[in-house]
Amino acid sequence: MKKFTGILTCAFIVLVTVGCSWQMPEKISVKTDAEYNFALGNFEKNLDSELNQNAMLGNIGNDNNNIKIYDYFPGKTGKDVQHFLVEAKIIDINLSEHPNLGPAIQTALALVPDGANLSLSDIPGLSTLQLHEKIGLDFNPSSIISELSRALGGDMLGKIKFNEINMYVYCEAASGLQSKARLNLFYGDKSNPIVARRYSSGEKANQIIGETILDCYSDPTIPASTSSKSYSYIGNSPRPDYELDNNVITADLSKSPSTVKLSIANLINSQLSTNAEIQSTDQLCMEYNVSGISGAISKADAQNGIKISLYALIDLPLSFDIVDDLKMDLNKMSEITGNDTSVDTSNVDTSGTNEFSKYLDIIESLTVRYAAYKLPVHSNGINIGIDMAGKGHFVYQSLSLVKEDSDEKSEIIMDAATIQKIKEISTVSPNIQIWLRKDSKFSIPREKAVKVNLELSLKTNGTVQIQ
């Protein structure tokens, strides 16, 4: 936990005429009309641990070897947006090891001359083979919003939505192999992905909450879906090579060919409202149907096994549209409690003879000077709000980041209501908010930290008894 790096300090000097017969009177009052400056220090904390992939994505893939999560930095560009990459292995099958097809494939291979191709239509049973399964991706996007709310000190459910989430589907197979396929994405029960979540009311009542992301079928007997991405067939379109660079994938998937690339943001966002029909125990699931395997592959490839693998990769950028005003509490964000930030000025003895609280009674104006060096959000519409009395009365102003080696500071002049509250409670207890306005955008940057420096300037006008 970080605390203020500075405390309220002040020095008030009484100048008197020095004489050999001078004696200290019983009471001294001074007329003060001056400006005093105090360094409040920094609200500061590194939030990497609160906003890393484990915290944000929870236990995704922990119990599933077919699910992997990566820190993703596509092309090493765009530090203002943190990406995560969810990789799901959908199918990984070697037809040469299939209990029924394996012997038939070996028999057909024995008849193919070296250097020639094996026609898959010559393999009995292959053209009628159907691969079908529903699998869970172990992913519920609402958990991301919950973690953001916890780490950034603001309730975000129903106030933000992802502005982009792309899914890439890759098929890895022998060159020349092709097949029909349909892939459906839907929400299902965490423990049993076979049970699909359905709309409970409205025009979509009883329909599955999901959409088709790939469809090679035109057979009208196969149930229609809410949307489709139509192809004649799928073939070899392997995942790009992505070596880890300090445990980060830096290859840009958007610049590599894939079987399917499409946005799934609408499906994800449809369930991020306060009245969403999916439950916290639900997960994103995928149903696949693969059949009609055909084509011709080289004998050499076939001898290594006739394999088909399907992978779905979800590029998950922490970049959002704001659909309702969003306020974040820097005190909670930096784990500073009210007792830590509050300075009880009635007990502050300055210069050994004076109580600072006496000067609060004659405050004429109060100005907060601030510099924001780091914020865990990036946006072109950030406002800062400061409440110096800790009573929920904030004064707001637009905010921009400055460099740490800069002397640049902005100012917020506290209003009369704030000054009156400080006089009433004899306490300076600053709270800071970040206010993101409706219809703006924000993202979580790769560097996740908060550092805001505060200074206090007060002008007095009145008489104070100092002895």
Brief description of this entry?
It is built from 9 helices and 28 strands. Strands 11-3-4-14-8-12 form a 6-stranded mixed beta sheet, with no helix packed on it. Strands 5, 6, 9, 10 and 13 form a 5-stranded antiparallel beta sheet that branches. Strand 21 and strand 22 form a beta hairpin.
Structure description:
A hairpin with a 7-residue loop joins strand 21 and strand 22. The protein is mainly beta and 467 residues long. The protein has a six-stranded mixed sheet with strand order 11-3-4-14-8-12, with no helix packed on it. Strands 5, 6, 9, 10 and 13 form a five-stranded antiparallel sheet that branches. The chain has a four-stranded antiparallel sheet with strand order 2-27-20-23. The chain is built from nine helices and 28 strands. The N terminus is likely disordered.
Largest sheet: 6 strands, mixed
> Radius of gyration over alpha carbons?
32 Å
Overall spatial form: elongated
What structural category arises from helix and sheet content?
mainly beta
Give the number of DSSP strands: 28
Strands side by side in the biggest sheet? 11-3-4-14-8-12
Question: Counting H and I runs of at least 4 residues, what is the number of helices?
Answer: 9
Mean pLDDT: 80
- Uncertain stretches of 5 or more adjacent residues: 1-29, 219-228, 336-354
| Beta-strand fraction estimate | 35-45%
Straight-line N-to-C gap? 40 Å
Helix content: 10-25%
